[in-house]
Each structure stands twice: as C-alpha cells, then as structure tokens.
Amino acid sequence: MKRFLKYIKPYRSAFILGPLMMLTEVFGEIWIPRLMSMIINNGVARHDTAYILRIGLVMLGACLIMVIGGTLGCYFAARASIGFSGDLRKDLYDKVQEFSFQELDVFSIGSLITRLTNDVQQIQFMIAMSLRMALRSPGMLIGALIMAAGINRELAAILLLVIPCLALSIFLIIRTAYPRLMQMQKALDRLNSGIQEALVNVRVIKSFVREDLEKEKFEKKNEDLKERTLRAMHVIILTMPVMSLFMNLTSVAVVWFGGNRVIAGNMLVGDLTAFITYITQILIALMMVAMIILQSSRSMASFKRTAEVLDTEPSVSDAGAEQPEKQVEQGSIEFRHVSFRYAEVRKVSDEDAETQAAEAQKTQSVPEPAAQAASAGNADENTPEDVLTDVSFSVAPGETIGILGATGCGKTTMVQLIPRLYDVTEGQILVDGTDVREYSLKNLRDGVAMVLQYNSLFSGSIAENLRWGDPEADDEKLRRFSEFAQADGFISSFEDGYEHMIEQGGTNVSGGQKQRLCIARALLKQPKILILDDSTSAVDTATEARIREAFATELKGTTKLIIAQRIGSVRDADRIIVMDDGRICATGSHEELLAGCREYQEIYYSQVEKPEKEAS
After folding, report:
1. Structural domains in the chain plus CATH codes
2. Do the beta carbons of residue 268 and residue 37 sit within 8 Å?
3. What is the pTM of this model?
C-alpha cells in the first residue's frame, strides 16, 4: 500500500479536513440524546416550558453545526477521493503507454480497460466512504459507549456480549466474500475482452453472419459474471440481516432490563430513552465499520489489480541505454545471430483452471489458457519455441530490401525487433553500428517509421492523422508527402479535403485508402529506416508501382524494408530475403533467387507462371 501514498500527498489537507469535519457530527450525535434526556427528566417532568425551549435551542444549534460539518466533510472527502483516483488513473494510463508488445500480450485489452475504469472507481468509492466514516464511526462508537456507561454500567454490560459476537460474524462474512469478489472482477475482465473483440471485428461478424455465435459467446461470459456476482452478493447481503438481528436483540434486552429498573424507580425515563439511543448509535457505528471493512475488502482486490499494472516493469526500456543521446543518422542495419521467442504463457490459478475446465466441458471447447499452452508446446513444459533462429544479415544505408516467405515464418516479428517493439532473445541488432539497446527508445523510434500489418487511424481529421508523423507539418508538406503515397488524389476528392473527418478506426475509408494514409503518415517522419509490413496489399498494382517509384526517387537516402506477399512488390528491390520457418534460407536479387532458390521459385511460379498458362 505504500506505493499509493504518493496519490495522497497532493490532497493532504482534504484527507485531513474531511474526517475532522465529520467529527462535528459525532459530537452532535453524542450530545443530542443527553440533551433529550434532560428535557424529559427536568423539563417535561416539571412542566418547565422555559427549560424545554432553552435546551431545545441548544439542540437546534448543535444540529446546525452538524449540518455545516457534515457538508464540509463530504466536500473534502469527494475532493480527496476524486483527486486520488484521477491521478491513479493517469499513472495507470501512462504505464500502459510504456508497455512493450510483450506486456500487452500478457494483459488483455479488456482487463486493462477494467483496471483503468471499474477498479479505479471502486478505489475512489472506498476512499470517499472511508473519509466520511473513518473517524465518524469509531468516534460515535467510543463516544456512545462512554455516554451509555455513564448512564448505567450494568445495562452497558450487555454490549460486552453483543460486540464480540457481531465482530466475529462480520469477520466470517468478509473472509468468505473477498475471494468471490476477486473472481467477480476477473469475470468482468473476460466480459470486457469479449465485448472489445466483438465491437472491433463487428464487420467481420456481420459479413460471415455470425451474430448468433457472438451472442452465444457474450451470453456465456455475461452469465458467468452474473453467477460470480451473485455468489459474492449472497455473502455480502448477510451483513444487514446479521446487523439488524443483533441490533434488535440488544434493543429488546435493554428495554426489558431498563424498563424493570424504571418501574422499580432505579432509573429515570429520560435516561432509558437516551440509553436506547446510545445503544442504537453503537450498533449503527459497528455497522458502518463493517461496511468500511467490507468495501475495503473489495477495493483491496482493485488495489491489487492496479498495483499489478503499476509494478510491471516494461521488458523494453531505456535502462541499458549507454548512448541515450545518439540518433539514427545513416540507417544501416545488421542482424548478428538473432533468435527470438515470445514470453511464456502465464500460469492460471487453480480456481481459474477449474472454472475454465468446467466451462470447456459445457461448451465442448478448449479453455483459452489451455489452448495457448497447447499452441506453445507441451502443456506441462509450456516452453515456447523460437520464432526466429540464428538470423544474420546486413543492410547498407539507403538500400531497399524485400522480405518474402510463407505466412507465419517470422517476417513481421523480425522487423518489429528493429524499433524494439520486442527485444531479441539472443544475438544483437545494430543500427548505424550501435546495438539498438544502447539508443534511447525515443531516438531509436524517431529514426524508424513502421507501417504495421494492421493499419490504424484515429478519430479526427485526415490532417490530424497525418501529423502523427510530423506535428509541425504545414499544409504544403502534408500534400507533398500524400502525393508520394498516392493519397492526395482521393483526399482532394473529399469536399473538405484534408479536414475530412475520419471515424474511429478509419471505418469511413477503404482499405487501400487507409493503407496510403498510413504510408503518408510514416513518410512525414522522414525516417532513416522505413519498414512496410505488407502495407500495399489492398492497393492496386498500378498505384503500388507509383508508390515504389516515389520511394526510389524521393527516399534515396532512406533504408527501406518491404515485407510483401506479391513478388511484384519487391521484384525491383536491391536484395530480397527469403524466409522459411524463422530462418533465412536465401538472399539475393530477383534473378539470382529465381535461378537458385527453390522457395522463391515456388512463390514466383504460383503468382506469375500459372496465371499465364491458364490465360493461354
């Protein structure tokens, strides 16, 4: 919990003043029953109207002070809790931005969304409630106990039996509820992940008419969340009945024994009335304490989940950067015996494993973690295999390299190692003769532009999207680099041109238009190394040829790595690297590979020769 103290310091005054203001309510609640007993014992019994009015005014003043103190207490509690949660949410988001692809593989997107929203909200609610009740509940409990004991110690002894029994009951409830609340949050993670996946891929779902399947998957996750929530609530809802039971039993005992004392003349009516009020306050205070503890148990799960994000050290960082000021100036690349494997699949807790196994039996499907383990290798060993093995090659500044190979052979993984989206498992990657791990991430990635396999645009205008490449680019520069990417033509066709609004994910432009916008965005960085990962697959061959021509004439000093599925996309490259099963099997020009590389020949003949024979 020490790591969360930093979020308290900026709001120290609110954290202190909130509980202190709530103490004014405590003083009022403690003294008002005593004042009421004085009215009954002295004013009513003696028919002294002046005395009743005088004490009544004192009670009214106490109530006004309670209102002011309670209002200020709630204000400071809200200020402290909202400030705490806002700063925590910001740090969580900043931390996620530092994650490499490896950490994003570990935390699902749905889980991260839950942690930044629902978990932070639970923490905020707990802090607000604690600040309002942290001093108020114990203060009222202690104060009422003292006042009750002052009225009649023998009657107060009843509490010595009630309080331990009540405390034990609350402890058992909380102990049972905590693990169930943890499982409820995990079920919420799975539901959010499913919703996020379905909404991102909604067009695919509709095109394959798989709405019924997605509804069924959602229903199972939603039902799982409902069942886990009900399991937790079935325990939590016992709190109020248990509290009411002890409160009523105590009230009955006090009225019975106290009433006999009044009848015997050993106790005044006003004192019994005040004593009953104090007993009620004591039990209410205990209930408040129980609610704080119960909410704290739930928020502790949220604290733990947020701490997991904050405590996760990114696998890719500037920690080993020996030359943080160095920048990419030429664009040469060298791979030295590079091997890479993805991180091991995280182990699932016993309870999760049992739950998922049960779900698998119901749905006759493999649980997700089990499927991941199976894909990684033997489930017992769970050791992932190398995706890249002993990869070595070099690229001169300004050279254009084509990369070909079957799907899943490691092409994308290999180029992602250059800007350190992942770090190598073995070997070295050098840029301008310096290990990429010696650069700062900012300087390294400033020198490398990458158009990913899956293109992403953000909601906003086309100009705003393009300026991700260069925030200072003027309209003329935007137009110039859009022309290189063959994007200016369709942009100009829009009524509002470069101010045309892009919907979230770029859903209102075609796949080819999206690819060209992403290429233009990358070119605006004017990088020393440009990586295109199958980024012209949705572009017609004539447009692609014009893009390649612009690369050759306008980006002569830029090193270009082009991953492609079509031979025509890399045919004119200075060299072509052919990959197979995570290894480089051949390197050379188009003519050299066509003459001596079987894998290249198979790709070439499948794309070029067969269509010609069929046409003839």
Report:
1. 12-311 (1.20.1560.10), 327-341+385-447+529-616 (3.40.50.300), 452-526 (3.40.50.300)
2. yes
3. 0.71
